[in-house]
Design a protein that fits this description.
The chain is an alpha/beta fold and 345 residues long. It contains twelve helices and 13 strands. The strands form three sheets. A seven-stranded mixed β-sheet has the order 2-8-7-6-5-3-4, sandwiched between helices. Strand 3, helix 5 and strand 4 form a beta-alpha-beta unit. Helix 3 packs parallel to helix 9. The longest helix has 27 residues.
Length: 345
Amino acid sequence: MPEDSVDHAKLRHHGDVDARAGMLDFAVNVQGSAPPDWLRRRLAARLDSLGRYPSAAEDLAARSAVALRHGRSPEQVLLLAGAAEGFAVLPRLAPRLAAVIHPSFTEPELALRDAGVPVTRVLLDPPYLLNPASVPEAADLVVLGNPTNPTSVLHPADAIQALRRPGRTIVVDEAFADAVPGETESLASSAAPDVLVLRSLTKTWALAGLRCGYFLGAPELLARLNHGRPHWPLGTLQLEAITATAAPFAVAQAHDRARALVVERESMIERLTAAGIDVHTPAAGPFLLLHVADGELLRKHLADQGIAVRRADTFPGLGPDYLRVAVRGTEEVGRLLAGIRAAGW
């Protein structure tokens, strides 16, 4: 679509803007308000080492831990200051035409457009299933999420693999893949030379303030993404967090949490549906997409009651009657439902 018709302000919008301090937060998908105690202790133990620069050995240790977790080699891991940095460096691949699958997280499109990369949107209609044939053959970069934010759709790995073409790079944003039991449909362990997988520690480990993530891919692609980054792109605490959460104990804990999320999500879907709310299903992520008449007005009424939900009209392909809500526990969902009833819905 023409650049002058793109609303960059909407592309820049994030759920944290919808959640003021003290609100009951359904707008942000982070699980919990702080990392688990064991991880906090690991990070606190490194505070005395902040007087020196991170070493190459620490960087290698973090990459090696991630590589072991995904059945890769350390050379196939690029550590990032959050998944956001991964999107920011995508223009270094110098694509002639980037195709972004929507509705989905908007940051990669924004980064590409800001860098002057031509972008075409591939808009999926409900039920938002991926159709590889809908992507223009001319696109030499394709970006999508799996599971997709905000639809909570989990695309089959085979459908993503079908996007591959000679001369094309596929970027799969798997920021929420560890919230799926068994990480089914993930390509994190696939060493295809033209597939880049982006992971984030923000959501499962409540590390939004520390900025930790990584790319998995062919060393040649990672070298292009890494070109021009500063010395010490990650700090000591970031490297420690990445190393710690890639350990088998932590991965097992994340898998346990993913199974608990399934139970919470199914209960939440049942309760919202019983209240007359249209919930998009099937859902695989730690969030749900709602379709509600006068959704923007409902969002404002809920905000007045101290309940934050994510506006979804900022996602291409969706309008003001769509809202996104994080999966939460029984008590929090009860308060959300009470707020919806109080607002007259």
